[in-house]
Amino acid sequence: MSVIEIFETKRRNTALRVNGFEYRRHRPLTNGNLSWRCLKVSCSATLKTDSEMTKIIERAGSHNHKSQNTVLSDDNANSPVSCNVSLDEDTTTTPLKMSSLELRDEGVITPQNTALSDNNANSPISFDVSLVVDTTDTTSKMPSLGLRDMGVNTPTIRTIRPNDETQSIREVELLQQRDDLIAYSRDLNNEIDQLKAVTQSQSDELNEMIRALQDENRVLSERVALMSTSIEALEADNQTLRNEKIVDANEIDKWRASHDELFIKLTTFSNDRSESSGPKSGRRKDNKSPRMRPKLPDNRCEALDVAAVECESDSLPPNITVHHYADSQGRNVAREFMKKCNLNFTSFVKPGAKFRDVVPDRLADFGSKDVLVGIQAGSNDVSKNEAKDVLTALRRSLRIYTELMS
């Protein structure tokens, strides 16, 4: 009859020992029974028990190894064991007769393995044991008794567990995998620490570059602000210079106009002389060659005769001469014309003349070398303040006359 011993593994799992072979719980069956498998990884031996683990129902497979040696472990001293024990009538005699416990010769248990530690030597030991007492008077069996704290003289039965040094291959593999995972995790942590250090260093460098760029940007902004102020000041100075230049240009134009103005010298004849000289006597143009005429400074006019004054400019074409005929009021028109007309200009002024007097009187002086002739109506017929309008009309007349001559 096979004896079933129940014990716990290091992982606190329930296990069985049958005939020296150890089984671990495999899986529950649908009918309520339990399936057990050999603790050796390479062994395929199995067995089935009832749900109370008291009866072996079926065995399958064979063991490919020897049975484990059972040694008594101090760690398993407090684990309960179920067995059937027969006691003689005299319970003080030894040895005990165990009717249902199969004894095996698996080696001598040394006192070193069975001795308790000094700290636990005098402590009472609690255990549960099911006993069946055989007496000489009756064949009935005593019911199972749960005995606790039986005293020092009470014999103790300790649970037999597998040796701590005996481990299954599966447990060794799991431990190896655990160690590998620990080493791999340690390596990963080291790599992560290195990456953190590199990242922190790069982050510090980037922050330093950002700070340097911010400082440079601030300096450039200050320079731009200073340059903007300078640009604004320069623009204001430039505007001031432009205004001054415009004012100077106007002053220069005025100065040039005042110095380029042709002064007309007028000779007033008395009415008696004009009447005695006749309509064609006096006030004639000097027909001397221009080369023979002395030049006055600042392009001023020279007096040709008592009645006529000719004004010329060195920069003007010598073959174009404008003849202007007017009365004493025509001098204003002559001045305006000389400011704005770039031509040789000759003005003949007759004080008190009217249009009917000027036209027949002065056409006789028009020579073949002259190109243009302008006749202003008697200025006594025109207001003094309308000199510019008269000049405009004169220019228009000169343009029409030029087109006709061409």
From TrEMBL:
Ranges annotated as biased composition (Basic residues): 281-294
Sections of the chain in a coiled coil: 185-251
Cross-referenced Gene3D superfamilies: 2.20.25.240
One Gene Ontology MF term: zinc ion binding
Region feature Disordered, mapped onto this chain: 271-298
Chain ranges of the FLYWCH-type domain: 8-65
InterPro entries, sorted: Znf_FLYWCH
Keywords in alphabetical order: Coiled coil, Metal-binding, Zinc, Zinc-finger
Signal peptide: none
A Pfam family matched in the record: FLYWCH
Superkingdom assignment: Eukaryota
Membrane-spanning ranges: none
Protein name stated in the entry: FLYWCH-type domain-containing protein
Organism: Laodelphax striatellus (Small brown planthopper)
